[in-house]
Amino acid sequence: MLLKSLREAVLDANLELVRKGLVLYTFGNASGVDRAQGLVVIKPSGVDYDKLRPEDMVVTDLHGKIVEGTLRPSSDLDTHTLLYREFAEIGAVVHTHSEFATSFAQAGLAIPPLGTTHADYFHGPVPVTAPLSDAAIQGDYVHETGLAIVAKFRSSGLDPMAVPACLVAGHAPFAWGRTANEAAHNAVVLEAVARMAYNTLTLRADAASAAGVSQALLDRHYLRKHGKDATYGQEKQ
Q1: pLDDT tens-digit profile of 60-111?
Q2: Structure confidence at residue 223 (pLDDT)
Q3: Whole-angstrom Cα distance, residue 171 to residue 105?
Q4: pLDDT tens-digit readout, 99-116
Q5: 158, 90, 98, 151: which is closest to 124 by C-alpha?
């Protein structure tokens, strides 16, 4: 069985989405990439989470060609593989239809950095893509979804590792990280900050117009966890 440890990590990332209430039934998917071998491991399409085993994960190359597996891969495979090809630091991708992040995506709204919880993980707003054209939807839709994410980051000059998530307009969120565990973690935090943002904007509708927390506070919280002189957590031995 190819990539046994990556299969196990990707399976656990998928199950973490269930444990944290981010998916219903067979919604959502997680994948991971082995950069050395140029291979991707992804959840199979439409299989109940409680029935998934490491051997059920599907292995493809970076262009979606199946290398090992008897089940059909996730229908979002082409979005995952495109993100891996375009963003070299990404090691895993997670897609959910979690309630609050998806609500922002359906509204076509970015998630503004309204507080320090957001700033701990996302160094700026979580962006939303432009809506897909009818031609894109009727064409290679899943590939076009990935292109829309990449276009948003390129046009905005965003670092995908500093803002490890994107909302696809009218659709739902994608999140990523260096490992499958980190990608799932970021997806869980994304839903939490989306819920907080929704509640904040409900309490104070003009909060977004103030552009959220100051740049100084955004930098302070993000860099204490992710900067070169990060102070959060314990020193690595």
Answers
A1: 999 999 999 999 999 999 999 999 999 999 999 999 999 999 999 999 999 9
A2: 79
A3: 6
A4: 999 999 999 999 999 999
A5: 158
Gap between the Cα atoms of 20 and 137, Å rounded: 31
CB neighbours of residue 180 within 10 Å: 28
In three-state secondary structure terms, 40 is strand
Return the residue matching tokens 């990935």: 146
Distance (Å) of CA 157 to CA 96, 110, 176: 25, 15, 18
CB 15 within 8 A of CB 77: no
- Note the pTM of the prediction, 2 decimals: 0.90
Q: What is the mean pLDDT of the chain?
A: 92
The residue with tokens 């002189």 is 229
Tokens read off for 95: 């897609």
Residues recognised as catalytic: 120, 232
| Domain annotation for the chain: domains and CATH numbers | 4-226 (3.40.225.10)
Are the CB atoms for 226 and 218 separated by under 8 Å? no
Residue with tokens 């957001």: 118
